[in-house]
Amino acid sequence: MTAAARIDELIAIDALLTDEERTWRDRARGFVREHVLPTIADDYEQARFRVELAHELGDGGFLGMHLSGFGCAGAGAVAYGLVCHELEFGDSGVRTFASVQGSLAMSAIRKHGSDEQRWKWLPGMAAGETIGCFALTEPQGGSDPAAMTTTARREGDGWVLDGRKRWIGLASVADVAIVWAKVVDGSDASEPGSSAAAAAPPAAAAAAAGGSAVRGFIVPTSTPGFTATPIAGKLSMRASVQCDVVLDGVRVAADALLPGASGLSGPFSCLNEARYGIVWGALGAARACLEAALDRSVSREVFGRPIGGYQLTQAKVADLVVEYQKGMLLALHLGRLKEAGRLAPAQISTGKLNSVREALRIAHECRTILGGDGITAEFPVMRHAANLESVRTYEGTDEIHQLVIGRALTGLNAF
């Protein structure tokens, strides 16, 4: 029996899944074996991002799969989580691609866009024919988006965007960017005559009228003044691409404004979608490490017998699989809450904090079971451990999620 089968048998999570959920999981597992695992070690070493993954993921139906209509699959939250789990078993960069495309860029358009915007962009994005990115984080700090300095001002019938963004996934290969900016100079995002004003809900229009609301814009990356430069020297997420973005007098038409988003609740609603995917995804990386360590524990002999036959090794794998199992059960519980429409932001923070923290612990301990060989590309453990340091940081650091949970428990805001 393989390590994967031993883990699955001990956890027995299949009994808690529907046939449709298992089908999605198995499809994603096959995708990773065919399209990711054969090349990922070399891709990582060469710092190479394979753009063709967009079409391949689109063909699998994985992009924006949790969204409904406009070419999206309309799958359930648990099915989406299981796919994130399998994609990150391959590499965090692959799951990140699906998250940036589906949970961030596509979700922003689906949640906050007009029907015209949805029909224009979402079918191509779901198919992987159009790549999107989500430009929120700025150089001075990602944990305080309220302090963003990127601005949007009205000019004639359109808008002009200026500012800088950093750590923007996919930006250099994207066809379209969802850019978040503060409306300035007394500009009114809901003034009469704007196509956005007609579609904006009253609350959003009122919030925009003050001239400082955060608004989202759909910006083709070919627009003059938009520049994306891949960040070099990364020791993590090497098979993925993250960029510095400069917006220098980027002019867009009035219909570039996302009419349904005003204030930080707009981007945060998308971030929560991505954070939910991480709850499952990080545990996929952990499972890859566990499988490698368990297989090695029965094949590598020291002092005359397999290292898995020693009590210290068995104590390690037992503790690690217990933590993995607890994380999977929490992810499943959160998925069922999400499907019922009852998942709260603090609960998502609980899952993200736990999954990433425990996945890192699992990766580090699995490396010790592999011995010196564990630092080589022959095994995926060091690659996953390095990637998880990025996953720990983006979509909210440990500290941010601790503060979100602490606020829910105490009723006091410590930000």
Automatic annotation (TrEMBL):
Pathway(s) served: Amino-acid metabolism; tryptophan metabolism; Amino-acid metabolism; lysine degradation
Acyl-CoA dehydrogenase/oxidase N-terminal domain residues: 18-129
GO BP, one annotated term: fatty-acyl-CoA biosynthetic process
PROSITE patterns documented for this protein: ACYL_COA_DH_1
UniProt entry tagged with the keyword Flavoprotein: yes
Enzyme Commission code: 1.3.8.6
Top-rank taxon, per record: Bacteria
Keyword tags: FAD, Flavoprotein, Oxidoreductase, Transit peptide
GO molecular function, one term: fatty-acyl-CoA binding
Pfam families in the record: Acyl-CoA_dh_1 (PF00441), Acyl-CoA_dh_M (PF02770), Acyl-CoA_dh_N (PF02771)
Domain Acyl-CoA dehydrogenase/oxidase C-terminal span(s) in chain numbering: 268-409
Cofactor(s) this protein requires: FAD
Transit peptide in keyword set: yes
Catalytic activity: glutaryl-CoA + oxidized [electron-transfer flavoprotein] + 2 H(+) = (2E)-butenoyl-CoA + reduced [electron-transfer flavoprotein] + CO2
Domain Acyl-CoA oxidase/dehydrogenase middle: from-to ranges: 133-250
Family in the record: Belongs to the acyl-CoA dehydrogenase family.
Record's protein name: glutaryl-CoA dehydrogenase (ETF)
